[in-house]
Amino acid sequence: MDLVVDFAAEPTFELLEPTNTRSFQVVLRGLPATPPVRHGDHPLTLEEHLWVPVALVRELAAGRVDDSWDDDLEAMIGYAESRGWFDSDKGTIRGHCVRRPGGDAHSGQ
Known about the structure:
The protein starts with a strand and ends in a 9-residue tail after the last strand. It contains 2 helices and 9 strands, in the order βββββββααββ. About 20% of the residues lie in helices and about 35% in strands. Mean pLDDT is about 85; it is low at about 105-109. It has one domain (about 1-100). It has helices at about 55-60, 70-80; strands at about 1-5, 10-15, 25-30, 40, 40-45, 45, 50-55, 85, 90-100. By secondary structure, the protein is of the alpha+beta class. Strands 1, 2, 3, 6, 7, 8 and 9 form a 7-stranded mixed β-sheet that branches.
């Protein structure tokens, strides 16, 4: 699953392939030098990785996944926690950042 954050104007967020809970990365498009990264009430911490609130992932997946997805997401969170990629105090999961200049999230076009 890819969380796409597009900074073309106001930051927009899109969750690609939400049913793929075996991977998680953050695709940053049109990233300004010092981005204000948040989605509504969800602040995101941008470093080499982006700590993403699980609540945001759930919000963006709502209506696009079936009933078994929540169990799959919990398994992904469990794996992330075993690797130190989940902050249970903040409810955030770490996604590796892939920077793209703009255009398509997958090809950079």
